[in-house]
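Subject: for your reference before the review

Hello V.,

The reviewers asked for a structural picture of the protein, and I figured it would be easier to keep everything in one thread rather than splitting it across files. Below is the amino acid sequence we used in the manuscript, unchanged from the supplementary table.
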Amino acid sequence: MTTTATVAPSRSVLLRTGVIAAAGALPIAGQLYVVLPLTAEIRGLSGHTNSTAALSSTVFALVYAAGILALGPLADRFGARRLMVASAGATAAVTLLAAFAPSAPWFLLGRAAQGLAAAAFTPATLAYIARTAPSSARVPLNTAAIGAGLASAVVGQVVAQLIAPLAGITGVFVVFAVAAAVAAVAARTLLPSDTAPADDRPSAGAVHRAIPGLLMRPRLVLLYCTGLTFLSALVALYTALGADGRWPSATLLILRASSLPAVVVAGLITLRLSAAPPRARILAAVGIAVTGALLCATAQTLTVGIGLFAVIGAIALAAPSVVAEVTRLGAPAIGAAASLYTVAIFGGASLGAPLAAALGNGLGTVALGSAAVLALGGLTSAIATRT
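And here is what came back from the structure prediction:
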């Protein structure tokens, strides 16, 4: 099966790939977080219950995870760019419909539809990068895609918080729908196709049958375990930060937002370290993340800010290198391999709040636990990448 472009893309094509990957991830992956500041607006929907606001996140996340496994591997059948365009376009359409949901039940149905539509974008993007970019460019491009996904957790909430007082849920969702539509058009018109010849494509059944085989490869499974630790630790830290109760809301907003530039810094560092061995990049970044989590354990405002900056920056450094190894080891089932990694990442995110609760929601204890989780991820990556 042909999975790699035969002609190296130009620098301008690589630049467009990175920009579209990042710009698309912000409104599409950001759908997971956009409802978090909208609790009051959701309670204004007819037919709402006390659990509607929480369910609006849960139903999206559950369908999103299932959709990644169902739709992501189809990049190997239909082409990654096609799947990117279809996912972004469908996300725009269902987000626009959800913007005008007449009641809470319809809104929750719209959230489920958003989860399904958005699910394919990240694995398709990672598969597209793996197929079309030379090996030297994959880590920087993965950094753009994954870094934007991390940044969407902050950007999505901030944008929603700014728009909601003026235009409510409808205004927030219309803005995100337009942004997703722009990403679909940009991917369709500005990115070269990666579709293999018709006689060289696996069947739709074959791309899903590749999943059990990938899970039988020990190095891949260890790298998926590494991915599982990243957002579980980060979400646990952010959960404890809010639940700890020692900081006013204005300080919390600053602490949360101040880590956003770390994604940009990580991208700049990645450009300079792209020639370094993957093992060295991953282990160094995980070491920085562990150190950042330990700084958070002091529960002092300045050191917590520095610690969060270090953790999110280190994850933005490590995750793209892990993805590059996953897609390399998963070939030729690149779409399926990227899908499993995406499930691991977001599966870890769903474990963050329970981890914080199990550790008592105190920032000091949760930070120590998060450091241990990240160190475990470093151990599994060290084993997976040893020669």
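For the response letter, the relevant points are probably these. The chain has two domains: 11-198, 204-385. Residues 147 and 316 are 5 Å apart (CA to CA).

Happy to draft the paragraph if you're swamped.

O.
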